[in-house]
Amino acid sequence: MDADCVHHIEILARDGESVTREFVTKYGFILFAKRSCSFANQWVLKSRNVIFMVTQSKLFHHAQQIESKIQDLIDNDDFYLVSTELKYKGTHKTESGSFKNCDEIDTVNNVALKVKNVRSCLQRLNARGATILKEETTIVDDLGEVDIAIVKSCVGNVIHTLLNCDRYKGAFLPHFNIIPQNHACEKADSDIVNLTHFDHVTFACEVGTSSAVLRWYEECLGLKRFLMNSDEDTDDGFVINTTDIGLRLKAMEYWHCAETGITAAHQSDSVNTIKFVIAEALPDQGPNQVATFLTEHGGPGIQHIGLHTPDIVTTVSTLMRRGVDFAEPPYTYYTEIGKLEDIEQIGQCVAILETNGILVDMEVDREQDVKESGRSNVQESTRGEQSGEQSGKDGHNSKRYLMQKFTKPLFDKNTFFLEVIHRSGATGFGSGNITALWRSVQAYMSSQQKPSVTMSS
């Protein structure tokens, strides 16, 4: 599943205009398409190969009217609104036994994937017992046609729209109005945010469910487990068990030999492989960010998305200047044993990284990781050449490393946030950064007086 295989990711928002405005003004996205119908308004935002679709429902929110509106959506042929339908079906009971109003939260729940053949994908999914929300159909307008279907993931309210856009000449999807861009009004180069593609999507899941989630994606969508770093156990995953963090992580990506049809239409489209990360709290842990997500989101779902940038220092500093709020790393991070040496080895300036709160991790034992995850060195080399992120591409070193930073939650609850990530040859996730990044988010959440505190970002 190459990065270009993610057609778009959908955000369900109570106030779509506000979310759209935040992405444009703070994150530097371009509003390039939109549509309105009887059930919803939708806005499409783009930064290079990163495309978010924001959906705001027009449904009446009174509880007694929900069921009839769901039926209207089921009878309606508008494939773009299944996320809204699922949102209403996905209401959760509170401790008092009453249903939590699904419209109390914003959520990110649809990772739309490009495929070569929608029908063959559905055959595989049906054979494995997956829940098909919408069977294959073809959507047509004056610019061509798109084959489309929708499947429900095993993770909470997450769904996957499957799309074959080979016969469509438009900029996005049929029936969306493309917004002309006035290039004369573009911001200065110093204000442009360079986010190039989706690097990974992280699911927050219930305790003890990571193996089942991994198995579903392997069997249904042809993804394959890969070890995130040299410290990971094949069975247990990468485990952080300290006084302040109890976390298990497992990761997967598209396996090039899988016969699912979920791949970029053309090899030249390849940028890198999108990764899916499963995060679950360890049993009998105290309050933590995964448990907080599950509580405030009303169940499992997409906790954060990593966006790749080729220049994280410029990108993060630009985002900060635009008003994006980040979760800062522990103040001791840059004085940890070996950290100064690592930063110097890759030719970065410690002061600049510290000023911007950017974390660095070297990738070690990569050959062993590749062997254990079932990938050959030849395939790794080929993928590196395609991505343009080979070791030593910066010219001043041959070290494999990555740099990262988390934003604070985007919505008014401690649920979804973004991660900015830069890779230089590294394909996994550094163990030191995982700990530091999650600790920074944990520290932010612990500082809040109330779990549902409103975020300015």
What descriptive keywords fit this protein?
9-stranded mixed β-sheet, 457 residues, alpha+beta, 26% helix, 2,3-Dihydroxybiphenyl 1,2-Dioxygenase, domain 1, 18 strands, globular, 2 domains
Written account of the structure:
The chain has 457 residues and is of the alpha+beta class. It has 2 domains: 3-186, 2,3-Dihydroxybiphenyl 1,2-Dioxygenase, domain 1 (Roll); 197-446, 2,3-Dihydroxybiphenyl 1,2-Dioxygenase, domain 1 (Roll), CATH 3.10.180. The protein is 26% helix and 27% strand. It contains 12 helices and 18 strands. It has a 9-stranded mixed sheet with strand order 6-7-8-5-1-4-3-2-9, with helices on both faces. A hairpin with a 6-residue loop joins β7 and β8. α2 (63-75) packs antiparallel against α3. The longest helix has 16 residues, at 431-446. The two termini are 31 Å apart. Residues 62-71, 88-102, 264-271, 366-396 and 449-457 have low confidence and may be disordered.
Kindly report the spatial arrangement of strands forming the biggest sheet. 6-7-8-5-1-4-3-2-9
> Any idea what the CATH superfamily of the largest domain is called?
2,3-Dihydroxybiphenyl 1,2-Dioxygenase, domain 1
Secondary-structure element series: EHEEEHHEHEEEEEHEEEEHEHHHEHHEEH
Please describe the biggest sheet, giving its number of strands, its sense, and whether it closes into a barrel: 9 strands, mixed
**What is the strand content?**
25-35%
The CATH C-level name of the largest domain is Alpha Beta
Cα shape: globular
Low-confidence stretches: 62-71, 88-102, 264-271, 366-396, 449-457
How much is the average pLDDT? 80
Can you count the helices?
Answer: 12
How helical, in percent, are the residues?
A: 25-40%
Count of separate structural domains: 2
